[in-house]
Design goal:
Elements (H helix, E strand, L loop, with lengths): L1 H12 L13 E7 L2 E3 L4 E2 L2 E9 L6 E8 L6 H11 L8 E2 L4 E5 L3 E8 L2 E6 L21 E6 L1
The chain binds copper (II) ion.
């Protein structure tokens, strides 16, 4: 997995973001710090996308990046609210579109490719580890680890 990540990283830096000679889909790196996703664009063109999900926390913890399709009228705030109200099981209320990135412990990366038709989506984390190392805290989505994006 690490060797693969290295190869893909080299391919990525050698190519422009929207197209590349290798035929691989464009690679977007999304990393987590302090229970927030960084690097995910707010809008993406439809089609194939490769994402590298990196857990860059400064303490040991498990995160994930689960892509879901948002039903009409729903936003990231609804994902947060459901996670607050119903806990980790609220994950099952949302339409998963494949490509579960993780779980990934601090320092780990996961690469997957998604085909994204136009629509509204979010990535979220329902892991329940706490910064102090204890388990069974609130799902991270409940404390704001959700990011909404649009595919056009
Ligand atoms: Cu998390």
């Amino acid at each position: 997995m690490l060797a693969l990540a290295g190869v893909l990283a080299m391919v990525s830096t050698a190519c422009s973001k929207s197209s590349n000679a290798s035929g691989l889909p464009p690679l977007t790196t999304v990393f987590v710090q302090k229970f927030r996703y960084h690097g995910m664009p707010a809008t993406l063109p439809s089609g194939l996308h490769m994402f590298r999900f990196e857990n860059q926390e400064s303490f040991p913890i498990t995160h994930e990046m689960i892509p879901i399709a948002l039903p009409p009228g729903k936003t990231a705030q609804d994902v947060i609210n459901e996670a607050k109200a119903k806990g980790p099981d609220s994950e099952d209320e949302w339409l998963h579109i494949g490509g579960d990135f993780g779980p990934a412990d601090t320092g780990a990366s996961v690469i997957e490719t998604l085909y994204l038709p136009p629509g509204n989506y979010a990535i979220a984390c329902w892991q329940t580890g706490k910064p102090n190392g204890q388990e069974n805290g609130p799902p991270h989505a409940a404390i704001g680890m959700v990011f909404q994006f649009k595919v056009t």
